[in-house]
Specification:
Layout lengths: L1 H11 L3 H32 L5 H51 L1
Length: 104
Amino acid sequence: MIDFALETERTEGLPPLQAVRKACLLRFRPILMTTFAALLGAVPLIFGTAVGSELRRPLGITIVGGLLVSQILTLFTTPVRYLALESLAGKRKSHVKDLEFANS
């Protein structure tokens, strides 16, 4: 998602907010599909009834829970962190420009 945002900023000249929004829209489906493919692979561990399935059930629950939590964190916190770091970088760039102006 961040790679797409950076590429969009560079090629199309969009500000960080618009670039990360466009990246989120482009990458939402592939991220979701990958996560659900892994999640559906763990479903048989949860609902299995074969001998020894009681030992595999906690693993399936952990996999599904971890994938759901990581999906939420990826989709919601990654753009926020990107914008926060871009904001800090922008402040630092303006501070450096101010120092260069003062020294000249």
